[in-house]
Design a protein that fits this description.
Radius of gyration: 20 Å
Bound molecules: uridine 5'-triphosphate
Helix content: 25-40%
CATH class: Alpha Beta
Largest sheet: 9 strands, mixed
CATH topology: Spore Coat Polysaccharide Biosynthesis Protein SpsA, Chain A
Order of helices and strands: EEEHEHHHEHHEEHEEEEHHEEHHH
Shape: globular
Strand order of the largest sheet: 5-4-1-6-11-8-12-10-9
CATH architecture: Alpha-Beta Complex
Number of strands: 13
Number of helices: 12
């Protein structure tokens, strides 16, 4: 299955850091956000990846490209660990790039991939959403897609005060963690929210989503909204919402980026002792 990673957004919420660099390249500990996303796809067996980019996003292409000079220097220095990591990044997947010439919204970004995807089911993973879990989130969605033979979106329970930032589903629970989506509301007010289940950046679509994307008109903010096409999809065809297992961070938000950095650095043995020393270690250090 092909994977589309939209990464052409302007990253306005993360200015000034995103003025001259893509938000998808913001490091979380020592890896750019988009590398976590690509690794999640690869761990789920998906290695045919289309990244939607735009102006100012060249660093993404360079990151996944071969770096002859760096490899040469690392080889000369005998730094085989760093060399292996640099080579792994450049070879883990077949990555194709499509430029979205105008930032006309997430729906429009996905439409840019239509020709490359063709008439096949495909996955969408937002380039700034990281999900931490042993079993990759997109793999969990693919499993449900294969059972239901219908489009699936990742959903998560969000506090009512934060629902206005998301697309929110109206769903009928059909089994543990799985909802049949009956409607969707984009960025609802508390009164408009049909539930507390918000859509996050992981999807598996039947190719019929392209028809709906072509049919809709610009919505909120003059953008082609993916949520509007998904509304048609759930009414005319089928859409399921999977409450996936894992912790999600929206790297495009400053608070979530800090949370992700703290959470992932805690999992790193090489950093944890220095960053989060045990009381005994602090005592040991103060004596020396
Ligand atoms: P966001 O709304 O998070 O992206 O879009 P943004 O516009 O970069 O963020 P802010 O609000 O300005 O800070 C969700 C995803 O859709 C992509 C973004 O890159 C992000 O992965 N996107 C959005 C596009 O690829 N093209 C667009 O025109 C809009």
């Amino acid at each position: 299955m092909k994977v589309v990673i939209p990464a052409a957004g302007l990253g306005i919420r993360f200015l000034p850091a995103t003025k001259a660099q893509p938000k998808e390249m913001l490091p979380v500990v020592d890896k750019p956000a988009i590398q976590y996303v690509v690794e999640e796809a690869v761990e789920s067996g998906m290695t045919d990846i289309i990244i939607i980019t735009g102006r100012g996003k060249r660093a993404i292409e360079d990151h996944f490209d071969k770096s002859y000079e760096l490899e040469h220097k690392l080889r000369e220095a005998g730094n085989s660990e760093a060399l292996a990591e640099v080579q792994r990044i450049a070879s883990m997947a077949d990555i194709f790039y499509i430029r979205q010439k105008e930032q006309l919204g997430l729906g429009h970004a996905i439409l840019c991939a239509k020709k490359h995807v063709g008439n096949e089911p495909f996955a969408v993973m937002l380039g700034d959403d990281i999900v931490v879990n042993e079993r990759p989130c997109i793999g969990q969605l693919v499993e449900v897609f294969e059972q239901m033979k219908a489009s699936v979106v990742g959903v998560e329970q969000v506090p009512k005060t934060k629902l206005h930032r998301y697309g929110v589903i109206k769903g009928r629970k059909i089994k543990e963690n799985l909802y049949k989506v009956e409607d969707l509301v984009e960025k609802p007010t508390p009164a408009e929210a049909p539930s507390d289940m918000a859509i996050i950046g992981r999807y598996v679509f039947q190719p019929e989503i392209f028809e709906f994307l072509e049919r809709i008109r610009p919505g909120k903010g003059g953008e082609i909204q993916l949520t509007d096409a998904m509304k048609l999809l759930c009414r005319r065809k089928s859409l399921y919402g999977l409450k996936f297992k894992g912790t999600r961070f929206d790297i495009g938000s400053k608070a979530d980026w800090v949370k992700a950095t703290i959470a992932l650095s805690m999992q790193r043995k090489d950093l944890a002792e220095e960053l989060y020393p045990s009381p005994q270690a602090v005592l040991r250090r103060s004596k020396t």
